[in-house]
Write a structure and sequence with these properties.
It is built from 15 helices and no strands. With about 325 residues, it is mainly α. Helix 2 packs across helix 6 and helix 12 runs antiparallel to helix 13.
Length: about 325
């Protein structure tokens, strides 16, 4: 089995963390990660040069998100993931649930809208095309929970428990396409929930939490199904190379445990982010009300007090 030009994966030695973290770049993801970092930093530098501020925390979150993709796709983890279900599941969980959250916390769309120049009158540049995409019917559909939640679930059950997974894993291109799909599904699922970047679907904070918890249990159920399996459930990993010294069923149980345990990590991260956003929104609303009260002499409070006084007078 060939993997993206890395050579054969049939004679890999037993897995260790050191071997898994050795440099073994996948060409597509290496270029994509470097390009993503370069474009983001270009936007930050452009804002700074014109005197606009950009949160260092957002920059750090974005860079960490891209680095997590590089960690699972440009190291030995990508080689071992072709023959070990447990390592593949680490890749899947990171690239579909951790990387998208960190990248979205970096607010790349907001940065692009602020950094890209405005095209001249009657012309459409990158900024105008991005705005058109954000307001398109296509974007409204793919970010709606009626689409994102079923897609999030189908990426587990419909993929792993059908011949499609084995078909994709036969070639490096198929494997790369599958990982791109995992990342894209993670982005469209968490984007409306995170609420950092502008988008067509913007529910309230309680609804965002409901959307989050509507999808997460299915990851746990998927992990439990793998752990309870009495036979290998995915053909690709049914006969691991003898050089690895592993049992297919034990490796599948480990993969299930990883899927089950990992479902808690994004829930906690997103919940913390939502609580901070909710608190910040309340604080901004309170400041707006204070400024309004300063401008109009707190007429709303005076009207309410007058209303209470009238009630008291009528009761006598």
């Amino acid at each position: 089995m060939d993997h993206s030009g890395h050579g054969t994966t049939m004679d890999l030695p037993p897995f260790t963390l050191g071997r898994g973290l050795q440099w073994s770049p996948d060409g597509f993801f290496l270029v994509a990660c470097l390009l993503g970092i370069a474009l983001y930093l270009w936007g930050v530098v452009r804002l700074r040069r014109r005197g606009d501020a950009w949160s260092p925390g957002r920059t750090a979150a974005f860079l960490c998100g891209v680095l997590t993709i590089g960690l699972v796709m440009c190291t030995g983890l990508n080689d071992y993931g072709m023959v070990m279900f447990s390592v593949h599941m680490v890749q899947h969980m990171v690239i579909s649930m951790l990387s998208p959250i960190l990248i979205l916390l970096g607010a790349p769309v907001t940065l692009a809208l602020r950094a890209l120049p405005v095209a001249g009158r009657g012309r459409k540049g990158p900024r105008e095309l991005l705005l058109a995409l954000l307001h398109s019917r296509y974007m409204r559909v793919i970010t709606h929970p009626a689409f994102t939640i079923p897609m999030f679930i189908a990426s587990l059950y419909a993929l792993y428990f059908s011949p499609l997974f084995d078909t994709l894993m036969r070639t490096g291109g198929g494997h790369t396409a599958m990982m791109i799909h995992f990342f894209a599904v993670g982005v469209i699922f968490f984007w409306p929930i995170m609420g950092v970047d502008p988008g067509p679907h913007r529910p309230g904070y309680l609804m965002r939490m409901l959307e989050l918890f509507a999808g997460m249990p299915f990851h746990a159920f998927f992990g439990i199904a793998l752990m309870m399996g009495s036979t290998p459930m995915v053909e690709t990993y049914a006969n691991p190379p003898a050089s690895l010294g592993i049992d297919a069923l034990s490796d599948q149980n480990a993969a299930g445990g990883i899927a089950w345990a990992f479902s808690e990590i994004p829930s906690v991260l997103v919940l913390i982010a939502l609580l901070f956003q909710w608190y910040g929104s309340d604080q901004r609303q309170a400041r707006r009300q204070d400024r309004a009260a300063d401008r109009d002499g707190d007429k709303e409070l005076e009207a309410y007090n007058a209303y209470l006084a009238s009630l008291n007078a009528n009761s006598r």
